[in-house]
Write a structure and sequence with these properties.
This protein is an alpha/beta fold. About 35% of the residues lie in helices and about 25% in strands. The relative contact order is 0.15.
Length: about 250
C-alpha cells in the first residue's frame, strides 16, 4: 500500500485563512504564514492553499500570498483559485507553488488540462472537483463550479475520469454536502471517484474525528487526506492522526 499523506488546507480570503460550512458562513482561522509554518512543524506532508474568492470575484490568485507562504515551508504546496491559463500556471509555479489546482477553468476549457499536463507535467496538475448530490446524474453526483454557486450540468464522476484521461496527476473531490460539517468525508463520493481513476485521490470536506481519516483510506480509496477545520481549530493534531493511522496498519511519514 502507498504512503498515506496528510494535507492541511488554507482557504484564503482577504489575506486571511477562513473556514465555512457548505462553502458559506466563513469564519477567520488565522494568518496563512503562521499556519503554514505550524503545519510543517507538525508533520504535514503537503499543504493546499485555495484562493476561494478568486473565481467568484473574476480575478487571478494573489501571487504575494503564494510567495509569503512558500517562503516558510519546504513541503509541496498546491495552489488553486483563479487559475485559468497556461500563463497563470507558470506565474503560480514561479511564485513558489509546487502544484496547481484548477476547477471552474478546467470545466470551461477542458483542453487547458491537456495543455497544462503537456507543458508542465501531470504531477503539477491537480483537478479539484466540487459536487453535490443529484439523483438525475448517472453517478448521483453533480459537478458544481464557481465556489459551488453554479451547476456545470455534468456528472462529477465522469468528469474525474475525463480529467485523468487528459493528463491530470491528482484528483481532489469535495462534497458540498459535507464541507466544514466535521461529520465525516463523503465516503460514497470519494469511493465513486477512486473507483474510476488510477491517480491519487484527495479526500476533502467534512473531517471531524480521527476515525474519519482511516475511513477515507479504507472505504473511500483516498491516498491524500485533506482537512481544514479540524486542524485550524486544534481539534486534532497532524501527529495524532498519523499515529492513529499507523496503529491501524497504514503507512505514513512520521
Amino acid at each position: 500500500m502507498s504512503i498515506i499523506k496528510i494535507m492541511p488546507c488554507l482557504d484564503m480570503k482577504h489575506g486571511r485563512v477562513v473556514k465555512g460550512v457548505h462553502f458559506v458562513n466563513l469564519r477567520d482561522a488565522g494568518d496563512p504564514v503562521e499556519n503554514a509554518a505550524f503545519y510543517q512543524k507538525e508533520g504535514a506532508d503537503e499543504l493546499a492553499m485555495l484562493d476561494i474568492a478568486a473565481t467568484v470575484e473574476n480575478r487571478k490568485t494573489r501571487l504575494e500570498w503564494i510567495k509569503s507562504v512558500s517562503s516558510v515551508i519546504d513541503i509541496p504546496l498546491t495552489v488553486g483559485g483563479g487559475i485559468s491559463t497556461l500563463e497563470d500556471i507558470e506565474l503560480v509555479l514561479k511564485a513558489g507553488a509546487d502544484k496547481i489546482s484548477m476547477n471552474s477553468a478546467a470545466v470551461k476549457n477542458p483542453d487547458l488540462v491537456r495543455q497544462a499536463a503537456k507543458t508542465f507535467g501531470s504531477d503539477k496538475i491537480t483537478i479539484a472537483i466540487d459536487a453535490r448530490r443529484n439523483k438525475a446524474m448517472p453517478s448521483g453526483f453533480e459537478l458544481v463550479v464557481s465556489g459551488g454557486t453554479k451547476s456545470a450540468g455534468k456528472d462529477a464522476v465522469d468528469w474525474a475520469k475525463q480529467c485523468q484521461d487528459m493528463g491530470a496527476g491528482v484528483v481532489l473531490p469535495t462534497s458540498m454536502d459535507g464541507d466544514g460539517t466535521q461529520s465525516g468525508y463523503d465516503i460514497e463520493f470519494t469511493r465513486a471517484i477512486s473507483d474510476v481513476v488510477d491517480v491519487p485521490v484527495v479526500a476533502s470536506g467534512g473531517a471531524g474525528k480521527i476515525e474519519h481519516f482511516y475511513e477515507a483510506v479504507i472505504q473511500g480509496g483516498a491516498r491524500i487526506l485533506l482537512a481544514a477545520s479540524v486542524f485550524h481549530y486544534r481539534i486534532l493534531s497532524i501527529g495524532e492522526v498519523k499515529e492513529y493511522l499507523r496503529g491501524k496498519g497504514l503507512q505514513v511519514n512520521l
